Amino acid sequence: MTVQELPGAGASHRSTPPPAWRPRTDAAPLLPDPEPYRVLGTPAAEKLDPELMRRCYAELVRGRRYNAQATALTRQGRLAVYPSTVGQEACEIAAALVLEEQDWLFPSYRDTLAAVARGLDPVQALTLLRGDWHTGYDPREYRIAPLCTPLATQLPHAVGLAHAARLRGDDVVALALVGDGGTSEGDFHEALNFAAVWQAPVVFLVQNNGFAISVPLAKQTAAPTLAHKAVGYGMPGRLVDGNDIAAVHEVLSDAVRRARAGGGPTLIEAVTYRIEAHTNADDATRYRGDAEVEAWKAHDPVELLERELTARGMLDEAGIREAKEAAEAMAATLRDRMNAEPVLDPMDLFENVYAEQTGRLREQAEMLRAELDAEEQS
Amino acid sequence: MAQALQRAMRDAMAQDPTVHVMGEDVGTLGGVFRITDGLAKEFGEERCTDTPLAEAGILGAAVGMAMYGLRPVVEMQFDAFAYPAFEQLISHVAKMRNRTRGAMPLPITIRVPYGGGIGGVEHHSDSSEAYYAATPGLHVVTPATVEDAYGLLRASIASDDPVVFLEPKRLYWSKAQWDPAAPAAVPGIGKALVRRTGASATLITYGPSLPVCLEAAEAAREEGWDLEVVDLRSLVPFDEETVMASVRRTGRAVVVHEANGFAGPGAEIVARIQEKCFHHLEAPVLRVTGFDIPYPPPMLEKHHLPGVDRILDTVARLQWEN
User: Fold this and answer.
1) Has A354 been annotated as catalytic?
2) pLDDT band at residue A4, thresholds of 50, 70 and 90?
3) pLDDT of residue B320
4) What residues of B are in contact with residue A141 (Cβ under 8 Å)?
5) Fold for domain A29-344?
6) Which residues of chain B from 64 to 93 reach within 8 Å of chain A, CB to CB?
7) Which of A137, A287, A288, A307 is catalytic?
């Protein structure tokens, strides 16, 4: 039965028409382009800034080595877990490089590399994953929020912080990182909605790496792209090739500039791929085939940039060697420092639960103290 | 009480420019209970903000604001409406100080109108204090008097730790005399008060059940019982000293609250009393609580809520030797 055939269809039920309705915002300028934005391998690459790109290259090489070293540390039992960003380094590095010193980064548990590229001590960045404490640094010192394990819950924090900074008249932009799986969470929705209503200076970067552990994007969302979700909140959505660091850097820079100028939030979807498993505890062969992984390896972020820069004469053999040597030196230092046994004080368990310890905690601390003393004597 | 709460926020905002009130309907409307009435007008919408309708978003944004040095005071409108914000509360608000090893405390006050007795329909009368009290890192306080409504809210806003501030809805319209020009000095968070002294048994209670307990104590005089009434005021931290001192004096105790009994705050209090005061007890410590049922429909709530008679019947059972 079509609408026209429905009983009463076509007849006017309304004695008076409803008040005139119009959408609040023109949706068209908010819509992402149908194809991810690319720079490398396109004519747009002619305008690349050689100095910035050489820095990106050095960071990419260092990031790839960092991923390898961290994965090795899990095999040696030095890290409890490591969620790899091999294949996603361009997103991580670009996110760190577009921020000014006063800006804030809100990473998820997978974004250690972004925090390190922003300047966080690699050992402090690995504190959570090593298991010796939850957060190994003062977030205010680096303007990096604690690595966030629950999905998307850091996004409303980014909105609140950016909003507070703006209320105080400070020039601060917050950049929040989230994965494709995180976009299904309620906090993703609430954060984007708050950000748009408040016109908060926030940039949301979704690293769509294809899988939420094992669940592919097609089972995660029915949206045309994750960037399309922006339109529903009244903010622009941008789609970018997440393996093309020049493109990610440019799209992020535009969004950061826009936020800084009072233009409000942007949602960016970077299309990338997680080359390794979700973590060392995951068996990726159960949910994806080698052909798919190999196809993405052919679109590697480090090689993409290296090819472009070499072809354009912005990078030579010496430059490549220099980047690799710097990365090796970083890895060696990291390995040495991570091999040192962390010194832990069990009495720290009772510190920093409250500003002032409660009576109950004092009792429990005394109990542990006595247990430790007894252990020492035996 | 509504007026005292409003005054507490107003004074805190006037004194400290970092205090921001936020929540659904708190601005133009002044809150569904009018607790934030006039704040947006006096301090501007930037400091008393109508947010989108999203509890996780409200509390999550408050976390970010507190990270940047503000002191958000968040309204959750109704007890059961706060549940969408539980992940933010438990995973972030309660833990931020601890997970950053003291580097980033979160001074957030979360105002939750709670409890029944106002004829509210489903999802408007829950007593959710056990969930909050079971979460390390949160302070949980609840005023039962107009003075405490003012004093405890000021103390909560001034606290460098997150505080869940439970407002007994049915006491909002309490007509107790209170001079806003001279707010009484109130002990801060973590101190219980003996509201009525007595010798034969202690009633331990808080929030909406305090007036019921005081009424029961008066009625008990006819039965020859001289009841002491302790108002906890703060569930976390728990003032063990005041409670135990009272129980040692009287030798008998009943814990009274509206929340469900099973795994409710009373269970913890009874356990602690028997751990600390076993040799002083003349009888088992008893509880008068709401039934272990989802909050009932308004026409039946009077049967669920602990009333004077149920308290007196329980007190009668303290004559253990019989």
Assistant:
1) no
2) low
3) 66
4) 103
5) Rossmann fold (3.40.50)
6) 64-70, 72, 84, 87-88, 91-92
7) A287
> Which residue ranges in chain B fall short of pLDDT 70?
182-184, 320-322
Which residues 292-311 of chain B have a CB within 8 Å of chain A?
Answer: none
- Residue A351: its chain B contacts at CB < 8 A? 101-102
Residue B322 C-alpha, separation from nearest chain A C-alpha, in angstroms: 36
What pLDDT is attached to residue B322?
A: 45
Work out how many CB contacts closer than 8 A connect A with B.
143
d(CA A31, CA A236): 6
Percent of chain B with pLDDT over 90: 94
Question: Given CA atoms B230, B232, B238, B242 in this order, what sign does their dihedral have?
Answer: negative
Beta-sheet pairing, B234-236 with B139-141: antiparallel
pLDDT of the residue at B241 = 97
At which residue do the structure tokens 């309620």 appear?
A: A186
Residue located via tokens 């009625």: B219
Count of C-beta atoms within a 10 Å radius of residue B313: 10
Count CB neighbours of B272 within 10 A.
17
Nearest to A138 among B59, B97, B100 (CB): B100
Three-state secondary structure along A227-286? CCHHHHHCCCEEEEECCCHHHHHHHHHHHHHHHHCCCCCEEEEEECCCCCCCCCCCCHHH
Is A137 a residue of the active site? no
Give start and end residues of each alpha helix (H) in chain A.
50-75, 89-97, 112-117, 122-125, 127-130, 139-142, 154-167, 186-198, 217-220, 229-233, 245-260, 290-297, 301-311, 317-339, 359-377
Q: Counting beta carbons within 10 angstroms of the beta carbon of residue B49, is it exposed (0 to 12), middle (13 to 18) or buried (19 or more)? A: buried
A201 near B CB under 8 A: no
The pLDDT score that the predictor gives to residue B264 is: 98
Residue B98 one-letter amino acid: N
DSSP letters along B240-272, please?
A: HHHHHHHHHHHS-EEEEEEEESTTSHHHHHHHH
- Whether the CB of B237 is below 8 Å from some CB of chain A: the reply is yes
Amino acid at B309: D
Q: What residues of chain B lie within 8 A of the CB of A187, using their CB?
A: 56-57, 60, 87-88
Residue A224 has pLDDT above 50, yes or no: yes
**C-alpha radius of gyration, chain B, whole number:** 19
Both tokens of A160, joined, read 């609140």
Under a CB-based contact definition with an 8 Å cutoff, are residues A105 and A144 in contact? yes
Give me B214's structure tokens: 């005081």
- Considering only residues 7 to 36 of chain B, which have any Cβ-Cβ distance to chain A shorter than 8 Å? 20
Amino acid occupying residue A359: G
Q: Percent of chain A having pLDDT more than 90?
A: 91
Tell me how far apart the alpha carbons of residues B126 and B257 are, in angstroms, rounded to a whole number.
Answer: 12
Distances (CA, A) of A293 to A40, A179, A271, A297: 21, 18, 14, 6
Residue bearing tokens 């966030």: A148
Using CA atoms, how far apart are residues A273 and B158, in angstroms rounded to an integer?
A: 47
> Cα B261 to the chain's mean position, in Å?
16
Choose, from B20, B92, B124, B139, the residue flagged as catalytic: B124
Mean pLDDT of chain A: 95
Instruction: For residue A153, give how far its alpha carbon lies from the nearest alpha carbon of chain B (Å).
Output: 7
Q: By the CB < 8 Å criterion, does B319 face chain A?
A: no
Give the largest Cα separation in chain B, rounded: 64
